[in-house]
C-alpha cells in the first residue's frame, strides 16, 4: 500500500521515516493537482485541510479525499501510516445495502483475491449490526 502524507514542518520528516511513499505540504498539493496520483491512501494533518479542499474534484471520485471519519485526517501520522500499511480497510454500504470495498488489485493472483474476499466476508459477518 502506497501512502502519501500532506503535512507541514517536522510531520513531513516523521511521515517519511514511518514509511510514507510520498510526503510534502503545498508542493505535494500542487503535484496532485498536476496529476501525480502514485498512491493508494492520502493522509493529512488537520492544519492542511484548507489547502486540500481544492483537491476535492480530483480526489473525491477516486475515494482518496482525507476525512476524520475514515482516520485519514490526524495528527498521529506515524500510527495512521502503520495502520494502513498493515491493511486497514473501510467498507461502506449504500442505501440499497450493497457493500462497496476493494479486495485486491488486478496484479493479484486468483487465490489471493479469493482469500481476501473470504476475509472481508468474515469481517462483514462479524461486524454486521443485528436486525
What does this structure look like?
39% of the residues lie in helices and 11% in strands. By secondary structure, the protein is α/β, with parallel strands linked by helices.
Order of helices and strands: EHEHEHHHEEH
User: Main β-sheet: number of strands, strand sense, barrel status?
Assistant: 3 strands, parallel
The total count of helices amounts to 6
Give the CA-CA distance, first to last residue: 35 Å
Total beta-strand segments: 5
Helical fraction equals: 25-40%
Percent strand equals 5-15%
Structural class: alpha/beta
Order of strands in the sheet with most strands: 2-1-3
Rounded to an integer in angstroms, the radius of gyration calculated over CA atoms is 16 Å
Shape: globular
Indicate the mean pLDDT. 87
Low-confidence stretches: none
Helix and strand topology:
Elements: E1 3-6, H1 10-17, E2 22-24, H2 26-33, E3 41-44, H3 49-52, H4 56-59, H5 77-85, E4 92-93, E5 99-100, H6 110-127
Parallel strand pairs: 1-2, 1-3
Antiparallel strand pairs: 4-5
